[in-house]
Specification:
single chain; alpha/beta; Rossmann fold; Helicase, Ruva Protein, domain 3; 7-stranded mixed sheet; two-stranded antiparallel sheet
Length: 276
């Protein structure tokens, strides 16, 4: 087990109060961080990439679980000092990158198989996820903590209230496995809502052929007016009737009713018609 002092002692020594501007909510419960690490699967090969490690509770759990290599991306200088102490306690197994995660190409870090394991800063969590989904096959898995509402959207099925753009694009590229909920009282400071850990396993090939950029446009248009018929909501993309017919979708269908494959068909129709 870790030769390091308790997390609360480390935070006190470094004056690491959580900053709202960085979306920080610290997790001190070592049982929970260990459970997240175990949820990521076998860690003895390749690279674990952690985003926003803060005081290092999850970093320690990954290393204690046998992670061969952990790369931690952190922009907070106070947390970087703590990470350096962890690196010294686990020689050769932890690398710290002082950077904004939004500006880091995680698909090129370390060696394969690459896994992202992180308690994400909630203020940029979905932006980061979409960034990683563009390169989904670069990762063996992504074990991530989000607000529960976000995971509900990731896993939602057609005709359910949470089904939307994020559901479609994520399920198109990944298998979605919600793992467990984390009560807000487990964090310091507590967030306003419950959190959920989810494991995303990228598919070897997407559910159906389509271009990522076009899928973003199609889902944005369709779910922008989710309760309207597609012949109305897709007008922003051009001749909606032609697109719907080419995709083999009933003109009276609504976005919230369509399976992922139908959005892929719409995206292919958009590209086939060379719509801007």
């Amino acid at each position: 087990m870790s030769p390091l002092p308790p997390l609360r002692d480390v935070i006190a020594a470094h004056g690491l109060a959580a900053r709202k501007s960085l979306g920080q909510h610290f997790l001190f419960d070592l049982n929970l961080t260990g459970r997240i690490a175990r949820g990521a699967g076998k860690l003895e090969t390749g690279t674990c990439i952690e985003i926003g490690p803060g005081p290092g509770g999850l970093t320690r759990a990954l290393l204690d679980a046998g992670a061969a290599q952990v790369i931690a991306v952190e922009r907070d200088d106070r947390a970087i000092a703590i990470q350096n102490e962890i690196a010294a306690a686990y020689p050769g197994r932890l690398t710290i990158i002082a950077a904004d995660a939004l500006e880091v190409d995680c698909a090129t870090l370390g060696t394969a198989p690459r896994r992202i394991v992180a308690n994400l800063p909630y203020n940029i969590s979905t932006v980061l996820l979409l960034q990683w989904l563009r390169q989904a096959t670069a990762f063996e898995s992504m074990t991530l903590m989000f607000q529960k509402e976000v995971v509900d959207r990731l896993a939602a099925e057609p005709r359910s209230p949470h089904y939307g753009r994020l559901s479609v694009i994520t399920q198109w590229l990944c298998q979605v496995h919600p793992l467990f909920n984390v009560d807000k009282r487990a964090f310091t400071p507590p967030p306003a809502v419950m959190s959920t850990v989810v494991k995303l396993v990228p598919r070897a090939t997407p559910l159906a052929p389509a271009r990522f950029e076009t899928m973003e446009r199609v889902t944005a248009a369709a779910f922008g007016q989710r309760r309207k018929m597609l012949r109305s909501s897709l007008k922003a993309l051009g001749d909606a009737e032609t697109l719907i017919a080419a995709a083999g979708i009933p003109p009276t269908a609504r976005a919230e009713e369509l399976p992922v494959e139908a959005f892929c068909a719409l995206a292919r129709a958009v590209d086939a018609n060379h719509l801007p």
